[in-house]
Structures are given as structure tokens and as C-alpha cells.
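[agent] plan:
  1. take the single chain provided in the ticket
  2. run structure prediction with default settings
  3. attach C-alpha cells to the ticket
  4. add a short note for the reviewer (M.T.)
[agent] executing step 1
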Amino acid sequence: MAGMSRYVISRTIQMFLTLLIILTLIFIMFESLPARPQDLLRTAPNIQPSQIEDMTRLYGYDRPIIERYLLYMTNMLTFDFGISFSRAESVWSILEDRIPRTMALFGGATVLAYIIGIYLGALIAWRRSGVLDGTTVVTSLVFYNMPSFWIGLIFLVVFASELNWFPLTGWYDPTDNLPYLVDVIWHMSLPMIVLLLLSLAGTVLLMRTAMLDVIGESYMITAKAIGLPQRKVLFKHGARNAMLPVVTSFIISFVFAIGGAVVLENVFSFPGMGALYINALYQLDFPVAEATLYIITLMVLLGNFLADMIYSYLDPRVRI
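[agent] step 2 finished; step 3 output follows
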């Protein structure tokens, strides 16, 4: 138990130091940009110089860079993200609207991919060297190596534009005359299918490899020798013991799927965190852009931390 406590403390310190480093890099990145939020005001003919000065003071650009850095770090660590430059509202209120959408889309696709992938990967490993095995592996490799934006555009053109099976953009359209939940699911279906195909490919390959490693173990041979049903041998004895790398991979994939929202959300014009980040950059809305990157970073770090905890619990050798 003491070993587990030391491991938890060690990983917590590492995660916090990593977070500080990433926050510092985010600050340097935005400070290095040649433009500032108040620069957009100078393009408006009715804006007075005094208003630009007020905006400069509001966002702290009249202070020394060290003071801005310390204020930035304090605000990030206390989740005080301030006011959006482009919308004149709390950054948190904007994030609260976008985070559930991204979580629903990318989280839902990842969960479905692992439910299907674990079953399919175990099945094709059990029936290895057959037609199903070869077809699934080749198909998985194709989707695994396919750029997400490319397959997204293909599906958008074919199934939304040409066949008109799905809406082109958005999250909800009141003119569809559908119940709210049904319309939301319809709008999410096409990007979720793309995400499911991309996530499923890696999950199937990972589960197949893990399952092949345990098929030759003595307990599997014994289970088959005593006449247990094939389904029980496959899933209770085989798949259960092969799921260690898959379980930890699931946590990491879940949070990295959210981090990948920047690309696919813009392909499908889905109003989530990824689209919010890109729009914030276009509008020089640094508070929103910084907060979005911070939330995504925090999700990734917490996901890695949770995966490490699960792995160390399942395999105590990791703590050594």
C-alpha cells in the first residue's frame, strides 16, 4: 500500500509540473503573436483611442510581461478565465455551453469504438488466419492510417451533400420539426460515424494483438481441455485477461479524442470546443483561446493520470 501511495504522489507531482510547463508554453505562444485583441478595435471607424486604452488596461497589456505571466498563471490555476473579447461575456459561460457537446460527440464515439472493438478484436483473434481476420485487419489498417479531415470531407460530400442523409452542419435546427434530442442525435450522427471508424480501427488491432498473446497461455488451454463452452473460454478467460492494455488505452483515447476536436469539428462545422478555439484565434479572442487549450490540456493530463492509476492497480510491477 505504501508503494501505491508513493506512486500516486510521484505521478501527481509530475502531472502538476507538466501542467505548469504547458501553461507557460501557451503563454509564450500567445505573447509571440504579432497581434493583440485590442488591435481589432483600431479597424473600427467609430472606436475612440480612449476605448482602446481602456481595453488594453482591462486585458493587462499595459503591465510588464512578468506581471502578466504571474497574473495569467494565477487565473488559469484558479479557473478565472475572465471576459471574452469578442462576445463580452464570461469565458466560463461559453465553455460550459461547448464542453458537453464535445464530450458527447467524441466521448460517445470513443465508448462505442471500444465496446465494439473489444468484441470484434477478441473474435478475429480467436478465428485468426481466416477470411474475417484478414479482411478486418486490412480494413482497420486503412482507416487507422487515414487522415481524419480527409475521411470527414468524403463522408460530408457523399452522405450529407449528395445523398442528403444527414445535415451538413450544426448541432440543432428548430426548422427540422423534430424533437430536440432526436434532432441533436441526427446532427451528431455523421461526425460520430467518422470518429467511430477511426477509433474502432486502432481498438480492434490492439485487442487482437493482446488476445493473441493470451490464447496460448496454460489457463486457456486448460479451459478448452475441460470442455468449457467456446464463448466462455473466449470472453471470460481470454478477453478478460487481454483487456489490460485496452483499458488503459481507452482512458488515453477518450481524452485525446477530445483534443482532436479542433480538426473534425471544423470539418463538420460542429459547435464544440475545437470550433470555438479556431474562431477565437480568428477573432484574436485570447482569453477564450487560452482557456480552451487549458481545458483540453487538463483533460489529457487527468486522463493520463487515471490510466496510470488503473494500470498500476492492475499490474503492481508498474509501481516499482
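[agent] step 4 note for reviewer: The chain is about 75% helix and 0% strand.
[agent] ticket updated
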